[in-house]
Specification:
42% helix, alpha+beta, three-stranded antiparallel β-sheet
């Protein structure tokens, strides 16, 4: 009789634990209908050349100069992505964490050209730039990591 009561108690505890576990999980996904509109995976618009883009930089926290340069048509959203991106954590933690808008450009093409110039100029001046693209020192830095 005692064994049966303990078994019943054990089953009840397992059911309660399962319910608590399921409450903390996301609800099950609904099946997607074939006629549902396709939502883009990202709000980024890499091909948008018809909207203004900002050239921005992140100042280095412990020495003069910048650690990262970039462009975006939505700097606030881009800043948030940098802050939570695990691949950017190594350089973001060495920056002041403040995005500084350098200039706005009428389209993405002009902003990309300005970004390339800014990265090359800073790298050739001896700044430790985290950008891999447009950086003439990137092979040296990658080997040192």
């Amino acid at each position: 009789m005692i064994a049966l009561a303990l078994l019943g108690l054990g089953v009840a505890l397992l059911i309660a634990a399962r319910l608590r576990y399921q409450q903390g999980r996301r609800p099950p996904r609904r099946p997607i209908s074939p006629t549902a509109p396709v939502r883009p995976r990202s709000t980024r618009s890499p091909g948008r050349d018809d909207v203004p883009h900002a050239l921005y930089r992140y100042p280095h926290a412990t020495r003069p100069g910048s650690i990262y340069y970039g462009i975006s048509n939505d700097p606030d959203a881009r800043h948030a992505r940098h802050a939570r991106d695990p691949r950017a954590r190594w350089w973001f933690s060495r920056s002041t964490g403040v995005m500084v808008i350098v200039a706005w450009f009428p389209n993405r093409t002009e902003a990309m050209a300005a970004e390339s110039r800014a990265i090359r100029t800073a790298a050739l001046a001896g700044e430790d730039i985290a950008n891999d693209h447009h950086n003439p020192n990137r092979r040296i830095r990658r080997a040192a990591r």
